[in-house]
Design goal:
This protein is an alpha+beta fold and 383 residues long. It is built from 7 helices and 11 strands. The chain has 2 domains: 128 residues, no CATH class; 209 residues, Heat Shock Protein 90 (2-Layer Sandwich), CATH 3.30.565. The strands form 3 sheets. It has a 5-stranded mixed beta sheet, covered by helices on one side. Strands 2-1-4-3 form a 4-stranded antiparallel beta sheet, covered by helices on one side. Strands 5-7 form a two-stranded antiparallel ribbon. Helix 1 packs antiparallel against helix 2, helix 2 runs antiparallel to helix 3 and helix 6 runs antiparallel to helix 7.
């Protein structure tokens, strides 16, 4: 799966799962409150029955004389009786100024006594809340949320794959197009470049016209585009031959390669290349890295501008005095097919290739740009 597909799938799953979780959380909370209230009501119903039982016992006490009978109370409940003015008479509950009791761990129920047995008009009965069914309810809801989360994650992944299927199809079509295009371009580009090299080798330099230089520039541009498209077609997966590469010599060779393109734009070239710099890298990757950065600096430079290319023990850099990149585009300029400036054409794949190469070797890539003033790019391999 390509990185763009992974990003789209991750965003879809994030939105889908967050919205589903929020919906189920609200529904589960409403259900929990309702079920808990129902469980407490059932426990209150038992208090009502106990109140009726205690009231009957008070009736017995009221009509019994000469016997020392205990106050009717139980181990699992507490009770108290109040007069018609709601004043405490007697009971196992500590007295208050009224019948209003508040305790989050206990349930209270008030029953009217008619007639007033033993002078009592009200019976207050209380018991400790049984949290066992409530805790079991919480566990059931949590288990449901976990099971629903797993189910909807699997379902979301499946729906996400269906969601990105059109994107995958479009990318596959584009990849087939690139593959066919590169195959068709290979032979004519190779033929043109071979003949140009033969003319340069056996021809006379003074006889080379301006038209010939334009053909040379166009041919080299086509060759670079062909190499980039081939790299994309391989999807960055190919057998790299990591060697100790003379980076100084390679950069100097590529500067010679791009001289005609720079001269066509009348650029002032400044090179600061330290000799003897070697790094462990695949030669083709080094070509693509250097070529894309230099060609971008030439393409987006202004006529009569400056092109600076440098190489040190720790880094390779390219600076130009071109059109620059808008601040809002700097964060996404490395994305494939992203073009911050459409006036110069191109496919928007150069910096994407550079980004993949830099990540493959653990290098660091930095880009600084000011619109209308120029751009500086740095690739560092030593901290």
């Amino acid at each position: 799966m390509l990185s763009s597909e992974k990003r789209s799938l991750a965003r879809f799953l994030l939105i889908y799962l967050l919205s589903t979780f929020l919906l189920f959380s609200v529904a589960s909370w409403i259900f929990y409150r309702s079920a808990k209230h129902h469980l407490l009501d059932r426990q209150k119903e038992t208090l009502k029955y106990r109140a009726e039982h205690i009231e009957s016992l008070l009736r017995v006490l009221h009509h019994t004389t000469g016997k020392n009978l205990p106050y009717p109370d139980g181990k699992d409940v507490q009770s108290a009786i109040y007069d018609v003015d709601k004043r405490y008479i007697f009971g196992s509950i500590k007295p208050t100024q009224s019948l209003k009791y508040r305790d989050k761990n206990r349930l209270y129920y008030v029953a009217k006594i008619e007639p007033y047995y033993l002078g009592a008009a009200y019976l207050l009965i209380s018991k400790t809340i049984n949290y066992t069914p409530i805790i079991q309810l919480q566990k059931n809801i949590i288990l449901f949320m976990v099971a629903a989360g797993i189910f909807f994650t699997i379902l979301g992944f499946y729906l996400g794959r269906l969601f990105i299927a059109p994107m995958r199809e479009s990318i596959e079509r584009m990849n087939h197009f690139i593959q066919d295009t590169t195959h068709e371009l290979n032979t004519p580009i190779s033929t043109i470049l071979t003949n140009i090299e033969m003319i340069e080798t056996f021809g006379k330099e003074e006889e080379q016209s301006e038209e010939f230089k334009r053909i040379e520039i166009a041919s080299k541009t086509l060759s670079r585009i062909y190499d980039d498209l081939t790299y994309l077609n391989l999807n960055n997966r190919y057998n790299r031959d990591i060697i100790i590469l003379d980076m100084s010599r390679l950069v100097e060779e590529r500067m010679v390669y791009f001289t005609a393109m720079a001269e066509a734009k009348r650029l002032r070239i400044v090179t600061t290349i330290v000799s003897g710099i070697s790094i462990e890298m695949d030669r083709n990757d080094a070509f693509r890295l250097v070529d894309n950065l230099i060609s971008n600096a030439i393409k987006y430079n202004k006529p009569n501008g400056m092109l600076e290319v440098g190489l040190s023990k720790k880094a390779f850099w390219v600076k130009d005095t071109g059109v620059g990149i808008r601040k809002k585009d700097l964060g996404s300029i490395m994305q494939r097919f992203k073009r911050a400036n459409k006036s110069e054409g191109g496919f928007g794949i150069g910096l994407d290739i550079v980004s993949h190469i830099v990540k493959s070797y653990g290098f660091e890539f930095m880009i600084h740009s000011v619109e209308e003033y120029g751009t500086e790019v740095y690739v560092t391999w030593e901290k």
